[in-house]
Fold each of these.
Amino acid sequence: MNLASENIIVLIICVVGFCLLGFGFTNRDRNWGVAMMWVGVLTMLGPIAWRLLTLFA
């Protein structure tokens, strides 16, 4: 896999995480909305951490 396609995959995962975060925020008064916000945050931070680990390791 080349670098351009890896960047696109990371970008798509971050956008999905941002959408989960936003959808969870609109439903934050329910328990599943708060859980969806956590899943969105972890989905966004996961590829960023993976990118940093592969960059510096």
Note: Residues 4 and 10 are 10 Å apart (CA to CA).
Amino acid sequence: MKNSKVFRKDVGQTNLLIKVGKISGRNAVRRSKAMDLVVTYIEKGIVYEEKPDGSKTQIDIVDSKPTEITLKKGMILHGKQKESKDIC
């Protein structure tokens, strides 16, 4: 079996941020439920709202569209800046 090595220096930091995000998300949901607040989340592309009594209501469906951009190594991206309306 071939071992795959990762040569990026920030892998440990990225994994730590993912772990911290999961823990803080769980804590936020637990505390919101403890304070009888409504929790909104996405599950399998559907947005649900869960009330403190445990009932769920479907709010919206998230459309997942495949990206139209295919990136290749060495490509240069040029971003367009939106026009801003300055209020003076």
Note: The longest strand covers residues 56-61.
